[in-house]
Amino acid sequence: MLDLRHVSENLPEVKAALTRRGFADAELLDRLGALAEERRSGIASVEALRQERNEASQAMAKVADKESEEFQAKREQLRNLGDQIKQGEGHQGKVETELEAILLILPNLPHPDTPDGLTEDDNVEVRVWGDKPSFDFDPRDHVEVGTALDILDFERAAKISGSRFVVLKGLGSRLNRALMQFMLDVHTTEHGYEEVWPPVLVKDSAMLGTGQLPKFAKDAFRMAKDAEWEAQVGAQGHDLYLVPTAEVPITNLHAGEILSEADLPVAYTGYTARFRSEAGSYGKDTRGMIRVHQFDKVELVRFCHPDDGDTQLDALTQHAETILQKLGLHHRVVQLCAGDMGFAAQKSYDLEVWLPAQDTFREISSCSWFGDFQARRMKARFRPGEKGKPRFVHTLNGSGLAIGRTLVAILEQNQRADGSVVVPEPLRPYMGGLERIPAP
User: Fold this and answer.
1) What is the pLDDT of residue 26?
2) Among 12, 123, 223, 433, which is disulfide-ready with 240 (CB 3.0 to 4.6 Å)?
3) Nearest-angstrom CA–CA distance, 12 and 188
4) Max CA pair span of the chain
5) In this model, does residue 421 exceed pLDDT 60?
């Protein structure tokens, strides 16, 4: 969430920054500015009334005759002032409720280093790693490769769950598990992250904290309720959602807390299954495992000092990229333009892995620096020194990596003419020494 004071005091600059993102609702921003001014004047008015009430109370206390007309008049004055204060506080509450509702739907402001542009065509290539794999045959996509190897089953997945699900079988399932363990091992032992295994059901407050609500409510899976649910959970005053990303539970670990400056940066990694409805048609994305309703990821989350955000983003991006490098997968890093970034991000890099069958790079990790956008929603702060005034931390996160898309890249980049797939060397210890998934 944006800082109300910054927005209201710098409205032209904020409008310009949001325009860079493609957010063009000037009327909404004008309404925000008007409400902010109304809030300021309302606060001043209520404070003046409180001061007047205090003075009237002191004056009334000095009246000796409690039955006199003077005393009765001053008491009536106090009642009137109390009613005015109550009315002013009620109106102020409505103004602040509307202000918060507007702030919750405004995206983060792009960092000055974020390039201009509105679509992925405007993203800036930073670097390319590895050689594009070459084949002396027409490469097949992961659906053909995995189905022929009998390690991916989309038909049975559709039978039990519907479209855009997959059942991983045999060595496919083992490869998926190997990727998860490999990623967690690298991030904990080499990169210094603390591993956590969070719940996959989270409160609506956690979804709000990282920016999934209210913006992406239609893409989330919310738990259905019945009488028993209401009695056990609903009475607690919150809804539960299946996590769309482990960013939600892991980042919210420090919601409402004040960290010590000496402990920064704090770094977590964790695995969860993730769930997204992702309504709509995405052309090739609806085929196979590129865009499914349930998928697996290893997440990287960092909390840092505001002055350290750029350095931490570079580190997090490199940590995610290390996985692709160790697996020998041809990929590139691009910096996202202002209009292509996620809702909560102020600066982002995408890792895109090469998919031969599509003859293009596809996103496999998005590494983002959110500034204090999420922390302000979560009330996650740190205390400078021993007695400093608490400040909002800065948060960062990225996929380290999306496991399903990594598996897709391995199947496509490492396929061989006989239908087999070479297992990347770092995964072989997790696969019982298996060097190749053999063709049937």
Assistant:
1) 87
2) 223
3) 44
4) 107
5) yes
Mean local confidence (pLDDT), 77-95 = 94
DSSP string, 376-400: HHHT-EEESTTTPPPEE-EEEEEEE
Supply φ then ψ for residue 220, to 5 degrees: -100, 155
Looking at residue 281, what is its pLDDT? 47
Q: Are residues 143 and 9 in the same domain?
A: no
Residues 168 and 138 in one domain: yes
Domain boundary (105, 140, 158) is at 105
Give yes or no: residues 190 and 277 share one domain.
yes
Please tell me whether the overall predicted TM-score, pTM, comes out greater than 0.85 for this model: yes
Percent of the chain with pLDDT over 90: 86
Kindly state whether residues 291 and 354 are assigned to the same domain.
yes
The tokens for 174 are: 């083992």
- Ramachandran region, residue 30 (left: φ > 0; alpha: ψ -120 to 50; beta: rest): alpha
What angle is formed at CA 258 by the lines to CA 253 and CA 262, rounded to 5 degrees? 100
Q: Per residue in 251-292, pLDDT tens?
A: 999 999 999 999 999 999 999 999 998 654 455 567 899 999
Residue range 238-254, pLDDT digits in tens = 788 999 999 999 999 99
Task: Report how far apart, in Å, the C-alpha atoms of 272 and of each of 122, 197, 200, 269, 279 are.
Answer: 32, 7, 7, 10, 21
> Which residue reads 């980042």 in tokens?
251
> CA-to-CA distance for 101 and 106, rounded, in angstroms?
9
Residues in the chain: 440
Q: Which structural domain, as residue segments, surrounds residue 366?
A: 120-437
* Both structure tokens of 265: 């940066």
Mean pLDDT of 384-397: 96
229 pLDDT exceeds 70? no
Locate 51 and state its tokens: 């001061």
Task: Give the catalytic positions in this structure.
Answer: 276, 291, 363, 366, 405
In a domain, 114, yes or no: no
In total, how many domains does the chain have?
2
Q: Are residues 100 and 126 in the same domain?
A: no
> Do 67 and 124 reside in the same domain of the chain?
no
CATH of residue 203's domain is: 3.30.930.10
Asked whether residue 176 falls in the same domain as residue 323, the answer is: yes
pLDDT band at 235 (very low <50, low <70, confident <90, very high): low
